[in-house]
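Hi R.,

Here are the chain sequences for the assembly we discussed:
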Amino acid sequence: MTALVEAQGIHLRLGGRVVLEDVSLRLEAGRIVTLIGPNGAGKTSLVRVLLGLLKPTAGRVVRKPGLRVGYVPQRLAVDATLPLTALGFLRLAGADPARCRRSLARVGVDGLADRPLAALSGGELQRALLARALLRRPELLVLDEPDQGLDLPGRRALHQLLAELRDELGCAVLLVSHDLHLVMAATDLVLCLNRHLCCSGTPDAVRADPAYGALFGLPYTHRHDHVHRLSGAVDRGSGDG
Amino acid sequence: MVDWAFLAPALAAGLGVALVAGPLGTFVVWRRMAYFGDTLAHSALLGIAAASAFSLAPGLAVASVCLAIAVGLLVLQQRAGLAADTLLGILSHSALALGLIAVWLVPGARLHLEGVLFGDLLAVGAREAVTVWLVGLAVLALLAYLWRPLLSLTVDQDLARVEGIPVGPVKTVYLLTLALVIAIAMRVVGVLLITALLVIPAATARRLARSPEAMAVQASLVGMAAVALGLALAWTVDLPAGPAVVVAAAALFLLSLALPQK
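And here is the predicted structure of the full complex:
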């Protein structure tokens, strides 16, 4: 299968700090990929590199030419003085009102159409952003921590919805999350990031991987097969593994 | 008695500036760029000095200097590692001080200092009024053409970029329109008060507007009302016209606070 986005050997330094180190990954149509990792692991930076918003210090990102990306950022910095309704926000994407309303209904928030954007709650805004992303008939849907601020049933519903959308659109989904358990259910591939990719695979394979436990401080037997140096560099093939 | 032959060009120029300052000012408010507008306006003094020293057209010189400062600011913001408002505070007042010195040193420019600082609306002639409208209509056309991309990047720059909007060029054209409007607004209210004409009508319209487009149109109308009121005040009580226009705008803003927020 051809990749929608392929990253090869991404290194990123921001302000003298190593943020990403030798990250390679492929995003393919029809697959849900979840990126997990502790705070400061570089998840959002990696997403920004994949989207072309940040230039990596080294390595390259190849996107399919003309790739349509639907992006759902963590939040919007909308000034309260901007009198924009949720419907108005969707219409900025260039679609007619009827289609915008259908898109809002698809993600279950048709009641929000006439509410001011600045007055939406975190969860409502996520849905509005998702509705807007869908207007682009995305081949790749990218969501940065969409489950933040959602309660447990809310998260379950969101992951269910994303799996449905993947089936409807045949798109790839890239999800950034803190969530260790719920995410796993509806995911084809899990990537554990802590500056470098510590481990990856199906949810079951990742759960069994000691590096996954190490990453989140879960009870486990440590078989660290690499060493993190103070500079942020990683020596593979050494350590106590 | 109203001397219309004398007053008409002033009124026309003032209305023309207010018309274009409305939609442009809404973006200044939405993007929280009031201080940025001040910095550009203050740098206009350097343009005046340059125009006098090298016998250039004042409007063109002012617009060029403003645009150069605007682009310089964008670059500095990405590199200096200082908060935007600190950087603007440094540049705004340095530009004003440098401009005052430059105007002081250039013999011809010194004579017009008061007019440059506070505006000289009642001295506007018919030709100047026509220039204001030509530049104003050109800026309005540019804004209308760029409305959606500009609004998109105001909502979220990353989202706009992912959706394929050329963020850099759109921002640069917006700064160009800001520089042009400062160049034509200088005669009406002076460099010290230009930002007021951008920000106050837009803030007033916020109380009334239900959509971004409505807010832009209403900001124009509020600004034009302020110009008419201010000129009437200046004419009847014999006040400086520029400050009178700004005071009228501020009065309209206070009135709007009595309205329920929509």
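Chain A has a mean pLDDT of 86. Chain A has two domains: 27-56+140-241, 79-136.

Let me know if anything looks off.

Best,
T.
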